[in-house]
Amino acid sequence: MSQIQHAVPDGPMRYTQICTRRTSCSSPPTSSSAAGTEPPSCPGHRGRTPRRKWQVFPGRNRFYCDGRVMMARQTGVFYLTLVLILLTSGLFFAFDCPYLASNLSPAIPAVGAVLFVFVMGMLFRASFSDPGVLPRATPDEAADLERQIDSTSCSKPPPRTREVLINGQTVKLKYCFTCKIFRPPRASHCSLCDNCVERFDHHCPWVGNCVGRRNYRFFYLFILSLSFLTIFIFSFVITHVVLRSNRTGFLTTLKDSPASILEVVVCFFSVWSIVGLSGFHTYLISSNQTTNEDIKGTWSRKEGKDNYNPYSYGNVLTNCCAALCGPLPPSLIDRRGPIQADTPQTAPQSNGTGGGSYAPTQLHSHMCDQDQCIQSTKFVLQAAATPLLHSDPVILPPLPAKPTSLGGPCAYLGPAQPTLPSCAGDVLTLRDVAVDSHCHHRLHLHHLHHHQHFVSPEETPCGTPQGALPCPAHMHLQHPAPQVRYDPVTQDSLHEDSVRGLVKLSSV
Amino acid sequence: MRQQAAVAAKVFIQRDYSNGTMCQFQTKFPSELETKIDKQQFEETIRTLNNLYTEAEKLGSQSFVEGCLACLTAYAVFLCMETHYEKVLKRISKYIQEQNDKIYAPRGLLLTDPIERGLRVIEVTIYEDRSFSR
Fold it and tell me: Domain Golgin subfamily A member 7/ERF4, which positions (chain B) (predicted)?
């Protein structure tokens, strides 16, 4: 839809030109319905300038087929799942079905085939859909929220929670430092994908994606149908072996159909976990809880006599219907929408786009709190010149290790060096000059590559105690390179902390 | 000579979670808009939007039938058909368009469709008053 200027006449109307037409076409039908069903053929077009929003998506997801398919970064286990299912089913159809079809009933392979197709369909749908990612706040929104937070309290640090009464139960909404929003109830920030996900259930490595509001039903149907398929294959392989053994003896049977052993072993070991998981999720659905809530015991009676789940409809059937047959909301992130020049961008970083890997070179200037950034950087540079900086290092407790975990200000360190000391993200230490220059060097190198990876774990260290300092050499905001891409998400909070820390240090 | 109107301020209407996770927006009238628009008019707009979102997320027989049908066809049915939610979102877009054209743009305001902000906020852009520049 092209932008049509709606010209408001002058005269009694005071405004010369306000554009009332939407600048971007929302294409929810294509993005939500196309994703997860059979992925269409991937166009090979990859330009140097990003054309679509998925190419500048700030989370750590991989996109395939021009944004139609969305998965987590680590997909190794997903391929394992795929191989196991395909192998076991393939062997079943190849070795056991001919005998069963001729000696028992042709309905057996037919039912098996239907189950198999359903399992694969649900797996793809669960793996490839957007789980319900909440887009990050635009700079204006973030600034507005900050103002509200600061104005409501004079104590430092300002409270980053909001309390809301839902059906008589008090629920705390937490502020997400990465996405710069107050998370809706039941949403949670996935540290692996670095996104806030609505109705976050868990991050499933087997499926290679988060499980959230939009793909929970697919995930559940996947594990349910997989349980049936596993039990189906297991029982019919046993039947096949027994029937054959009665005729020709056990050892001959094993010689004729060696694959059966493999199938039995795989099915036997998977059936416990998959059936168990299905049962667990059936319980969760009937009580309208998420895995996250259940694990944390958010609505357990132990927390308090009056503690109950405010989201439950009170009745098992309604809860099940709501989870499985409720309306399917469209994707909020509009992956395939075109990038508008005037569309407010959140903190843009390159995301690892998998198979069709794309390294965007387009740089965005980000409206961060410039004055604050400059001020705090001045403080840091001043402090770096003083010997106080090289006194006792301040070490924060390391955050859970991530494969390519790198700190915020060290965002320029590429993913190929996971062993590099990471500042600001996992461990904040005051380093000596040698390491500073080392960091500087790396920083400079990576400006050329314009790669950026950053991690911001859940409940990020931005609210860390005073004394937490990023590596001074990494305050690259004042870097003279004309094309600077930096991640202001952790910058802003770290700036505040660094300023406070340095003021404290310098007053010693 | 026509110029693009300059943005003076932005007001954000946040979500109202008192009924749970359903998409509802706060109907509280923001103070920045006091001089710009009638309170009743504004609240009416927000209330209508809230009703439309409730309709989109309603757990009724229509959504149930749609859900069952989709499940039976392995969700392939959504290749040719829009979901109920999407249909209502289109209606919401049209409604906001209408409201902007008739009521808000003449007063120097612009409502942004919440779907463009991830259903987090209704962004109201206040444009500069150019009456003195003439």
Answer: 11-123
Following DSSP, what letter does each residue of A423-464 receive, concatenated? TTTT------HHHHHHHHHHHHHHHHHT-------SS-GGGP
pLDDT given for residue B72 in this prediction:
82
pLDDT band at B19 (very low <50, low <70, confident <90, very high): confident
Residue A327, chain B, CB below 8 Å: the answer is yes
Mean pLDDT of A223-229: 96
Range of the domain at B70: 7-26+37-127
The pLDDT score that the predictor gives to residue A421 is 40
Q: List the end-to-end C-alpha distance of chain A, in Å, as a whole number.
A: 61
Count the domains in chain B.
Answer: 1
Q: Model ipTM?
A: 0.89
Q: What is the pLDDT of residue A19?
A: 67
DSSP sequence for A458-498: SS-GGGPPTT----GGG-GGG---SS----HHHHHHHHHHH
Length of chain A equals: 508
Q: Closest approach of chain B CAs to the CA of A162, in angstroms?
A: 11
Mean pLDDT of A282-288: 92
Using a CB–CB cutoff of 8 Å, tell me whether B106 touches chain A: yes
What DSSP designation does B30 have? P
The candidate with the shortest Cα–Cα distance to B81, out of A127, A37, A119, A132, is A37
pLDDT at A115 over 70: yes
User: A196: part of which helix (H) or strand (E)?
Assistant: strand A195-197
Which value, in Å, is the radius of gyration of the alpha carbons in chain A?
Answer: 27
> How far away is chain B from the Cα of A134, in angstroms, using its nearest Cα?
6
Asked whether residue B32 is assigned to any structural domain, the reply reads no
Q: How confident is the model at residue A247 (pLDDT cuts 50, 70, 90)?
A: confident
pLDDT tens digits, A126-157: 999 999 999 999 898 889 888 888 776 666 66
Residue B49 located in a structural domain: yes
Q: What is the pLDDT of residue A401?
A: 42
Q: Using CB atoms, pick whichever of B64, B74, B93 lies closest to residue A118.
A: B74
Residues of B in contact with A142 (CB under 8 A): none
* pLDDT at res. A237: 93
In terms of C-beta distances under 8 Å and separation of at least 24 residues, what long-range contacts does A92-96 make, across chains too?
A92/A233, A92/A236, A92/A237, A92/A263, A94/A259, A95/A257, A95/A259, A95/A260, A96/A236, A96/A237, A96/A240, A96/A257, A96/A259, A96/A260, A96/A263
* Beta-strand pair A161-166/A169-176: antiparallel
Task: Give A198's contacts in chain B (Cβ within 8 Å).
Answer: 21
Q: Is residue B2 domain-resident?
A: no
Find, in chain B, the residue whose alpha carbon is nearest to that of A140: B10
What is this structure's pTM? 0.69
Does the annotation count A210 as an active-site position? no
Q: Report how far residue A379's alpha carbon sits from residue A469's, in angstroms, rounded to the nearest whole number.
A: 12
Of residues B3, B14, B97, nearest to A20 (C-beta): B97
Tokens representing residue A121 in the block: 């369909």
Q: Does the residue B13 lie in any domain?
A: yes
Active-site position among A179, A204, A410, A462: A204
pLDDT band at B25 (very low <50, low <70, confident <90, very high): very high
